[in-house]
């Protein structure tokens, strides 16, 4: 059996009002059109639903049973419309985000927690990737938004500024560099470095900078996380260049020293990438406006 929802709605109104004419007027259709829909319902059910009398109508036993089902279906449809409306308005749903280690370490936890508090029915699926992989993920449509380093070529996507951070030198506390107020990049290229794994935007950028100076960036150890980098530096396996937020909070309870880098590029951008802002879901638009409130 296939039931038309509008016909069921008319049937419920007829049952409540006891009149086809009055029910038709409530639904703004002709009485003949309402009567035709009721006849079609009876044909689908295979039994009479109404006793048609001069002063109105009453329900048969089949009509009484259908009325219970029709009311239940009506409540389900109302709930479905309400819940789907929540998705359309961005109140519910899932937002897929890919982010680099720098943004996750420094800013995203607090920002996403604040967003979740304001939007408790929205879910965020967050994956950590290198900046180049993040851009590929956004281009493919596998992520709605991607937070990446401004050092990375972002062809094929649109982007907005998320945050700015500052790169610094992390060195053992008893290292010769620890006594300096700042250093030029060229002055530390004779050092061994601890770096993030291949594909890291910071590492790739520093390698290019070193080449432009006619030198090499000597990576002694590669690890997967900022925590791993800090531990290797404390073990005196090399120095590292990290975001300030990945070093400064750990200075007091570690054997680390932090030295500013006297280079204009040490102040860098973290950006939010999307394939096309106009086609973002309502939910992703909400998060984008939250993370980049000053952009139009």
From TrEMBL:
Q: Which residues form the HTH lysR-type domain?
A: 1-60
Indicate whether Cell membrane appears among the record's keywords. Answer: no
Keywords tagged on the record: DNA-binding, Transcription, Transcription regulation
Q: Indicate what this protein is called per its UniProt record.
A: LysR substrate-binding domain-containing protein
**Xref: PROSITE patterns:** HTH_LYSR (PS50931)
Q: What is the lineage of its organism?
A: Bacteria, Pseudomonadati, Pseudomonadota, Alphaproteobacteria, Rhodobacterales
Family under the similarity heading: Belongs to the LysR transcriptional regulatory family.
Q: Does the keyword Transcription apply?
A: yes
SUPFAM superfamilies, per the entry: Periplasmic binding protein-like II, Winged helix' DNA-binding domain
Q: What InterPro entries does the entry give? A: HTH-type_LysR_regulators, LysR_HTH_N, LysR_subst-bd, WH-like_DNA-bd_sf, WH_DNA-bd_sf
């Amino acid at each position: 059996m296939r039931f038309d929802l509008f016909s069921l709605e008319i049937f419920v109104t007829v049952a409540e009002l006891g009149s086809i004419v009055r029910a038709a007027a409530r639904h703004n259709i002709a009485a003949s059109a309402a009567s035709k829909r009721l006849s079609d319902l009876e044909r689908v059910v295979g039994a009479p639903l109404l006793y048609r009398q001069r002063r109105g109508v009453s329900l048969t036993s089949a009509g009484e049973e259908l009325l219970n089902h029709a009311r239940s279906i009506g409540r389900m449809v109302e709930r479905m419309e309400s819940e789907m409306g929540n998705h359309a308005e961005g109140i519910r749903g899932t937002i897929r985000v890919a982010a680099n280690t720098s943004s996750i370490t420094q800013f995203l936890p607090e920002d996403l927690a604040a967003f979740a508090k304001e939007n408790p029915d929205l879910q965020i699926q967050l994956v950590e990737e290198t900046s180049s992989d993040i851009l590929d993920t956004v281009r493919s449509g596998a992520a709605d938004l991607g937070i990446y380093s401004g050092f990375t070529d972002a062809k094929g996507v649109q982007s907005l500024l998320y945050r700015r951070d500052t790169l610094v030198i992390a060195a053992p506390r008893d290292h010769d560099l620890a006594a300096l107020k700042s250093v030029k990049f060229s002055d530390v290229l004779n050092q061994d470095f601890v770096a993030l794994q291949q594909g890291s935007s910071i590492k790739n950028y520093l390698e290019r900078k070193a080449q432009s100076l006619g030198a090499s960036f000597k990576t002694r150890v590669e690890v997967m996380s900022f925590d791993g980098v800090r531990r290797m530096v404390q073990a005196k396996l090399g120095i590292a260049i990290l975001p300030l937020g990945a070093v400064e909070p750990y200075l007091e309870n570690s054997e680390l020293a932090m030295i500013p880098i006297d280079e204009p590029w040490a102040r860098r951008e973290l950006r939010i990438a999307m394939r096309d802002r106009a086609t973002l879901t309502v939910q992703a638009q909400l998060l984008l406006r939250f993370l980049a409130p000053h952009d139009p």
